[in-house]
Write a structure and sequence with these properties.
The protein has about 350 residues and is of the alpha/beta class. The protein contains 13 helices and twelve strands. Strand 5, helix 6 and strand 6 form a beta-alpha-beta unit. The longest helix is centred in the first third of the chain and has 21 residues. The two termini are about 30 Å apart. The protein binds nicotinamide-adenine-dinucleotide and thymidine-5'-diphosphate. Thymidine-5'-diphosphate binds next to helix 7 and strand 8.
Amino acid sequence: MKILVTGGAGFIGSNFIYHMLREHPEDTIVCADKLTYAGNAETLGNAAKHPSFTFYRADISVSRAVEEIFSREKPDAVVNFAAESHVDRSIAHPSVFLKTNVLGVQTLLDACRRHGVARFHQVSTDEVYGDLPIGRRDLFFTEDTPLKASSPYSASKASADLLAGAYFRTYGVPVTISRCSNNYGPYHFPEKLIPLAITNILRGKPVPVYGTGENVRDWLYVEDHCAAIDAILRRGVPGRVYNVGGHNERSNLQVVRAVISLLGKGEIEFVCDRAGHDLRYAIDPSRMERELGWKGSVPFEEGLSRTVEWFLANRQWWEHILDGSYRKYNREFYGANS
Ligand code: NAD
Ligand code: TYD
């Protein structure tokens, strides 16, 4: 199978590429990524040495660029990770979220339709369901929970899900959608809570905690998410949505305190709350478990400890991001204008 992975130079996409190269050496991986601030060619350094890996620098919302890749590579399946992914940035600058996360998905769906691609998988998020009350631990998001986005980011992802569903029903494009909870692990960009906490503490800076720190997220180790997408790609049913999560709910304060405890140091600084801040996310993953035999396998404490170890062992990777030199690497290796 030849798989086009869009957004593969980011956090989850790169982990997925390494998962596929390891677990399915018979497959060929083509990665297309715009290399925005969140894309990092250094992350794909080892993949680039692999004979079954090809990289294109391309924007998924530019149809000519997308068409060129589809015509040349003729992928059997497309897995779309490409997105603007940070809620805080979407509050400050919403328009690029609509361009990439909605129009980019439409461009990919059109190309899949034209080329008769056997599967389009849209990597979505539990944030499309809005939020749940903190005190109601009996409530979970199921695949039938109505979409009710809170931020421009989640509204753009919900729009893409609706569009993907419409292309399945109207044109018969074989679409699957996964809605996953918060991921963490290697190659996580240090603007998100866990890598920000680790890298701030290692640089002697306090960790900013929004509001009271009581907001709850459901954390999933990234490798478990990659295995879930792999299962959906192989055994999932077109037209179906799959919720992915591991029942690892923690408040932001619990998460930051756990990082401080693993590193043996660190300060918290309470700062202004995020506008429209979602209170709690909690996924019911029983469809994935029942229908596809997938189950999250990494408990939060173990995954967090592995993640902290990874950031300690790969200091150069995140220092290149923080000092901006990763963008020079992107330019040198892929002619990026970033
Ligand atoms: P990320 O921000 O780390 O990576 C996004 C990647 O997409 C980057 O490599 C970037 O260069 C690329 N990209 C952005 N705009 C592009 C465009 N127009 N054309 C081509 N490439 C473009 O994001 P992530 O955390 O790896 O998330 C990947 C996907 O998973 C996203 O769709 C996100 O909505 C979804 N998701 C993320 C989480 C999470 O916890 N991080 C949870 C659930 C779902
Ligand atoms: P984030 O990692 O941005 O993911 P998301 O907003 O998609 O859930 O944030 C996770 C939680 O941590 C969220 O409730 C916001 C909070 N947060 C902080 O308290 N401080 C920070 O510096 C960041 C980036 C997030």
